[in-house]
Write a structure and sequence with these properties.
Chain lengths: 109, 141
């Protein structure tokens, strides 16, 4: 059975983007965790694009925290890119808005 | 007072969480558009907790979710949630300790106005989680 999550990697000069689309919950967060860990190899900076995430729960937040810790260990710069309205609300519920570096490049309705 | 009642039942498996959220999310979005996302998150977290911490005593029984929705109050009954003896150990973790895991109960507490654990009618050794969210009467939903 498939999950309601799609992940895409884009390499750019000096950084990599992991694009996350769909729902991140208890089930799909395993796939996000594995892909995030792999995406931290071979790049000086990883941006986790959360613009198209419809739903993210505590297991998704846990993966983003784990990613931060892996990135720090590997000395890779790590930021969250354009989090959707739902993701921003969950980050604020977790009181992590000052924990993550958040990059916003476009307005989110 | 108009009250609407909705029920859904899923096997205790994470692959059904998306369908459950879709069902209740659509209903909540219709009735409480400003609060729907957060209440759907609370429901999802509650069901995730059941799946993660399910004891052998609860076996593979389905997770039953009942929503009683009125303009001034949304009430959810979710069960079986836990064993009676486990209630005292359920608590949100300290947010100062930034680490993966343990945030679900914190989200539920932040989003909902009342959280209770009621004995199940046909199984007193288990508790049903009761979540309530109140809305000001006459508030623009």
């Amino acid at each position: 059975m498939t999950t309601n999550l799609e992940l895409h990697i884009e390499d750019h000069p000096g950084y990599r983007i992991l694009r996350v689309e769909g729902d991140v919950d208890m089930r799909s967060s395993v796939s996000l965790r594995d892909n995030l860990r792999d995406a931290l190899d071979g790049t000086p900076m990883l941006k986790v694009d959360l613009q198209s995430v419809r739903y993210l729960d505590s297991s998704g937040i846990a993966v983003l925290i784990q990613g931060f810790k892996w990135a720090k260990h590997k000395q890779v710069e790590y930021c969250l890119l354009n989090p959707s309205k739902q993701v921003r609300a969950v980050i604020e519920l977790a009181m992590l808005q000052n924990f993550f570096e958040i990059e916003t490049t476009k307005e989110d309705g | 007072m108009v009250q609407r009642r909705f029920e859904a039942s899923i096997p205790p498996d994470a692959c059904y969480l998306h369908a459950l959220r879709g069902f209740f999310g659509a209903i909540l979005d219709e009735l409480y558009p400003e609060q729907a996302e957060q209440m759907t998150l609370a429901l999802g977290e509650a069901c995730t907790n059941i799946i993660q911490h399910r004891g052998e005593s609860m076996g593979s029984d389905p997770i039953d979710v009942v929503a009683e929705l009125a303009p001034e109050l949304a009430r959810f009954r979710i069960g079986p949630y836990c064993r009676s003896e486990d209630v005292s150990s359920i608590k949100p973790r300290d947010l100062d300790d930034v680490r993966p895991g343990g945030l679900g109960s914190h989200f539920i507490e932040q989003i909902m106005d009342r959280i209770d654990y009621e004995p199940e009618c046909n199984r007193p050794s288990c508790r049903t989680l009761v979540l309530e969210k109140r809305f000001p009467v006459g508030a623009d939903q």
